[in-house]
Structure formats: structure tokens, C-alpha cells
Design goal:
The protein has 651 residues and is of the alpha+beta class. Helices cover 43% and strands 14% of the residues. Strand 10 and strand 11 form a beta hairpin. Helix 18 packs parallel to helix 21.
């Protein structure tokens, strides 16, 4: 099965969840996160018109900001752009107020064909036919001052600026015997519209549906837009453009390009829209989404989820310092998407995903233009494959990382606390290590999207980890002086973060190419690059210790870091220069016996001719530097602990 078949199956399995309000935050229902009924769409409304049962205007109100509602739509109106296509129930003033005669005529025609004997629909049709809505709204003081044109000659008789009000969305409530009915929320009207569409669309021949593989007669000539809210006008499928070159040059007519049953097209697009709204992992126009196709029940459970719970749950995972990602509490179908997103963010325990057993789809979409949306990655995996790839990614890419946990108590001003953990860096962290911080320009966004797609392919598509990303990250980490804070000073935190993420990528790359490199220091390892990295760490630590004892630890950067970029290019000659610069610090530490012994131990491990070679170091040297540096820090902590326990300093 492919993407469309799985989306169709997922929608049909989710029948009980259709139309149920989406996530609720601060008491506000988000209709954009609701799985829509077929032949319906979301619509932004700001004006509510209250009508009597026979279509008489009663009152009108205006919301402080637009709200999103669910309304019926025609095939044409669901994807309308500049063409005249009216929604059959609620629409913009342009269609309702007679501002554009052709649009109002179209709206009344659609409503007239549908309304039958339904009293609510008849009331709306009667009222709009009277063409008094703009006048009524003006009389109810609905319009704002800035929506009037200033008349300099007669300032007391300003006229409405139709250009400013034509896009205002209008919805209706209709008086009944028991009160008012919100027509956009009426299940009766939704069912009535679906029956009308399915019953009225007629075709002259039977065609082969590309999704179901069945002969069908109700072919979609237009497919919905607004699948991804960040690219609202982009369509995944489009073959109705006969004036441009959508299918011209390849096919003689639209049906030669693609044939999809109208109802199936609706189900596929509604399902994809819901998945992206609830579980999409977005960057600009690119979105990654994952879901399981198997069970109806779990879709229902996921509908009450919200971002606060997700964030809270994610933060709970990093409370245990140094622990390899903890147990998940997730238990639901589309929760795989949450897990994937959390995995991408680097905090989850992939091993716990083994609790689940479902077929998983992973898809990435991007929009090359404002009107076109494309599938750039798709993988359908069995449960074992999916879980295995996630676990493998975490195991191969894990390293010592740091996160900053925000305080959960809003009533007290607390600083974020530092949390150290072993895990895989997120996609965004990898992009930071390779390309630096987000500069807010379009080129960075393009690089970010390209890299995310590459990483997704590595994680799930059996692609090798790109060597160029490893080298770029290592090269950037080898220039510590390039990491500056907003005041133009050296940012050691950012640099160390970059080093650690680079080490994670190096481990991943070497695991695929040659061997698995352990997290801890390998004291017997004889790789030239690894040993040079260790020497650099010892030199750095020696100088830091001397500066600390002289109470000058925060006054400047060590020579080891200043020379790090040159050390990577010419290690042998740079080491000689660095070693000479350590002389005053060795004297200050009375010979620095421990550090000198460590240097000697490392020097002995070089193979003949390796140390004298001045060829550039591979990224592996960063792992040697990081592992040695961590070993020295661990030694310091051990000594401090012993000092605390015994009252004496252990040398």
C-alpha cells in the first residue's frame, strides 16, 4: 500500500472521531485540530448574524479576533483562489453582501439547490436574498472606524471601505422554538450536506480509481488545499489547470494524469490535514509526520491531547541526570508521531517504544511554490523495523549532551536548570552544530529543510550518514573563537555544545564505516588523530588549572583553544608551539607532574612516524579531546569528593 491508501484506511478507521472538537487550550477549542467530515472545510469567521426563523435580521456580534469554524464546502470552493466559488452555508461578506454581484449570485444558487425544506437554510437564503446584510451590520455598529473611507468634504458621512470588509467571514445562528441553532455546529446540517453532495454529483462514465483500485463514477476534478496551515494554498494533488501546464505536454486530458474518487479524495486530504495539524514537525513549509495505520480507537484517544501535556511529558524525561532516556507513558496510535517528534528532539527513551505493535507510516512534505505541495520522503515500515531504526539511531548517535530545563512553577522566578544526559542530539541541534545558529534568513531555512530530510533518510531509509555533515560540524567545532555571544565575547557553552554534538555525529559515522567507538576514554587506543586530541585536552586542562590557582580562570581563553584551529590543520608543528607556551604554567604548578606524566603516557602510544606527521587531523581527534577532557573532569570531581569526605586534599 502507498501513502494515499494508508491515509484512506486511517480515515475510515477513525470514523468515530470525525467532527469531534480538537485540542482545547485555555478553554478554546481548536477546530483546525479536528478531523473534518468529508465535503467540509475550516473557515475563519469574525461576525455572527442572528436570524429569526423566517429570515428576519435580529442582531449581529463581532468577535475580538477570528475564530475557526467547520463549514460545508463544494469541490470548487474547497480549493478556490481567485475564481468565483461560494461556500454553501457561511462565507465572506464578498459573497453574502452583494459587494460582488457574481459571487452573491453564486452563493444564493448553491444554497438554493441545497436548502430543500430545512428551516434554518431557508431562513438564511431568505435573508441573504434581501441584500440587506451590509446595511444591517452597519446599523449594528459592527464595522470599525478604520473600515470606513474618510470623506474630507463631508466627514460626517463616511462610506464603508468595501475593500477592507469584503474578506470578513460571516456565520449564522437561526432562531428555533427552543432557542438558537449555530448552523456551523449542526450535525443535522453536516449530514444533510453530505447526502446532498453524494446524491447530486452525476457522471456519465465509470473510471478506475487510483486509490481504491475500484471502478467509480464520482471523480474529483479539484482536490482540497489548506492541508498544511503554513502553506495554506498549496495542493498535494492538482490537475485541473487547463490554462497553464499542470498536465499539458504529458497528457491529453485531466483523467489521463490522475483519477481519484471524489469521496476518497476528501477522506485522504482530511486525514492528512488532521495528522499534520496535530502531529506535524514543521520547519517553514516542510513538515514531517508519522502515524500508525491499524486501529480506530487510538485515534479517538489522541484527540484530547495537547501541546502542554507533550511539553510537560517531555520535560519529565530529562529529570534524571545521566540516565539514558526514560520510560514513555505513551500508549496511542498517532502518539507514534509524538514519540517520533520527541525522538527528533532527542529526549526520549527509544527502547520503550517496543511496547507498541503497529504498522507505521513516515512522510515528509514540502512546498516548492505557494500553490504546490510535494511528498519528499515516504517510508512504510512494520513495527519491528520502525522501532529498530529508532533504537539504532539513538544507540549510534548518543553522546554526552546538555539541556536546560525550564522551571514548572510559574509563580516563582527561577532560572533554568542544567540537565546532563546521554542521548541523541535533535535534528535542530545537529543543524546548529553544522551550520551554526539560525540567522533568520531564507538560505538558513533552506539548509535546515535539506538537512532534516537527509537525517530522516538516514534514520528510516537506510541511507549512510553524510560524511560532509560530520566534517562540517567537526571543522566548525575546531574554531572555538568563532562562537560568540551577543556581546561579541567567546561563548564557551555554545562551543562545548557544538563539540559534543559533533562527537555524536562522529560516533554515528564511524559506527557505520568501521567500528563502534565507546563513550568513555580509550586509554590504549593508538589512532594518531585520537591521541593528538587527547594531548590537546591535557594542555587545555593544565593551563586551566594554573589559571584557577592564580584566580584568573575567567580572565581569558586558554592557548589550547586559541590554537585549536591551527592544531587541527598542522598538529605536529602546532603542538610544539603550544607545548612551549605551557612552560610558565608548568612552572606555576611546580612542574605539573600529573599532567606531564599523562602527556608522556599518550606520547608513548603513537606509532612510529605518526607523531611527526603534520597532516590534518580527521574528526576523530575531537572524540579524543572530548573523552580525555571528560576523564580529567571526572578525576577532579572524585578528588573533590574525597576532600569533602576526609577533610584533606588528595593529590
Amino acid at each position: 500500500m502507498g501513502l494515499f491508501q494508508n491515509l484512506l484506511e486511517t480515515y475510515e478507521l477513525s470514523e468515530n472521531a470525525i467532527g469531534i472538537a480538537g485540542s482545547v487550550k485555555d478553554g478554546v477549542i481548536d477546530e483546525k485540530k479536528t478531523l473534518l467530515p468529508i465535503f467540509h472545510t475550516t473557515f475563519k469567521s469574525t461576525i455572527c448574524v442572528n436570524l429569526a426563523q423566517h429570515g428576519k435580521f435580529l442582531s449581529a456580534t463581532r468577535d475580538k479576533k477570528e475564530i475557526t469554524i467547520i463549514i460545508p464546502c463544494t469541490e470548487g470552493s474547497s480549493g478556490r483562489t481567485t475564481n468565483v466559488e461560494a461556500h454553501p452555508l457561511c462565507d465572506q461578506l464578498d459573497y453574502l453582501g452583494g459587494i460582488n454581484k457574481a459571487k452573491t449570485k453564486k452563493y444564493l444558487s448553491e444554497l438554493k439547490n441545497w436548502k430543500g425544506q430545512n428551516p434554518s437554510l431557508n431562513a438564511i437564503h431568505t435573508y441573504i436574498s434581501g441584500q440587506t446584510i451590509v446595511e444591517d451590520l452597519e446599523g449594528s455598529a459592527i464595522f470599525k472606524d478604520n473600515e470606513y473611507q474618510e470623506q474630507t468634504d463631508t466627514p460626517l458621512h463616511n462610506r464603508l471601505d468595501y475593500e477592507k470588509i469584503r474578506k470578513l467571514g460571516v456565520r449564522f445562528t437561526v432562531q428555533t422554538g427552543d432557542g438558537f441553532i449555530n448552523v456551523w455546529e449542526s450535525e443535522e446540517l453536516r449530514d444533510l450536506w453530505k447526502e446532498y453532495v453524494l446524491g447530486s454529483k452525476s457522471f456519465t462514465k465509470s473510471l478506475f480509481d487510483y486509490i481504491s483500485g475500484l471502478d467509480v463514477g464520482k471523480i474529483a476534478t479539484q482536490h482540497p488545499k489548506n492541508i498544511n496551515s503554513t502553506t495554506g494554498n498549496a495542493k498535494l494533488l492538482s490537475c485541473n489547470d487547463k490554462t497553464e501546464f499542470t498536465f499539458r505536454g504529458r497528457f491529453a486530458k485531466q483523467d489521463d494524469a490522475i483519477i481519484i474518487d471524489y469521496e476518497n479524495s476528501q477522506k485522504v486530504h482530511q486525514m492528512l490535514r488532521w495528522l499534520i495539524s496535530n502531529y506535524g514537525y514543521n520547519v517553514d513549509s516542510q513538515v514531517i509526520v508519522a502515524w500508525a495505520v491499524d486501529d480506530n480507537k487510538e485515534v479517538n484517544e489522541k484527540l484530547y491531547d495537547n501541546s502542554y501535556i507533550l511539553i510537560e511529558d517531555t520535560q519529565a524525561d530529562i529529570q534524571t541526570e545521566g540516565e539514558r532516556l526514560e520510560e514513555l507513558k505513551g500508549q496511542v496510535y498517532a502518539d507514534y508521531a509524538v514519540k517520533l517528534r520527541s525522538v527528533l528532539q532527542g529526549y526520549r527513551n527509544a527502547n520503550v517504544l517496543k511496547q507498541h505493535a503497529r504498522k507505521i507510516c513516515i512522510a515528509a512534505f514540502d512546498s516548492a511554490t505557494t500553490g504546490r505541495m510535494g511528498l519528499v520522503f515516504y517510508q512504510e515500515l512494520s513495527e519491528d523495523e520502525y522501532l529498530g531504526k529508532i533504537v539504532q539511531w539513538h544507540e549510534d548517535t548518543s553522546y554526552f549532551l546538555t539541556a536546560w530545563k525550564k522551571p514548572t512553577d510559574d509563580t516563582v522566578e527561577l532560572k533554568s536548570s542544567r540537565v546532563e544526559y546521554i542521548g541523541a542530539p535533535s535534528y535542530d541541534e545537529i543543524i546548529f552544530a553544522v551550520y551554526g545558529k539560525d540567522r533568520g534568513d531564507k538560505s538558513y531555512t533552506t539548509l535546515k529543510k535539506k538537512t532534516r530530510k537527509q537525517l530522516l533518510e538516514c534514520m528510516f531509509g537506510n541511507f549512510a550518514f553524510p560524511k560532509n555533515l560530520v566534517e562540517m560540524a567537526a571543522n566548525r567545532a575546531s574554531h572555538p573563537m568563532g562562537f560568540m555571544d551577543k556581546n561579541g565575547k567567546f561563548s564557551e557553552n555554545d562551543w562545548r555544545k557544538s563539540v559534543n554534538i559533533s562527537c555524536a555525529l562522529i560516533r554515528k559515522y564511524y559506527k557505520k564505516e568501521t567500528e563502534e567507538i565507546p563513550l568513555e576514554l580509550e586509554k590504549e587506543r593508538t589512532d594518531r588523530d585520537y591521541l593528538f586530541g587527547r594531548l590537546l585536552a591535557v594542555a587545555d586542562k593544565l593551563e586551566r588549572t594554573a589559571l584557577y590557582k592564580a584566580e584568573k580562570q575567567d580572565t581569558r581563553t586558554t592557548n589550547a583553544l586559541k590554537l585549536m584551529s591551527a592544531f587541527q590543520v598542522k598538529p605536529y608543528s602546532t603542538w610544539g608551539q603550544l607545548y612551549n607556551q605551557l612552560i610558565p604554567y608548568r612552572n606555576q604548578l611546580f612542574g605539573a607532574g600529573y599532567y606531564q606524566s599523562l602527556i608522556d603516557e599518550i606520547m608513548v602510544l603513537f606509532k612510529s612516524g605518526d607523531f611527526e606527521s603534520n597532516t590534518p587531523l580527521s574528526p576523530l581527534y575531537l572524540l579524543g579531546y572530548s573523552a580525555q577532557n571528560r576523564a580529567l573532569l571526572k578525576k577532579d570531581k572524585t578528588e573533590q569528593s574525597e576532600e569533602t569526605n576526609d577533610g584533606d586534599i588528595t593529590e
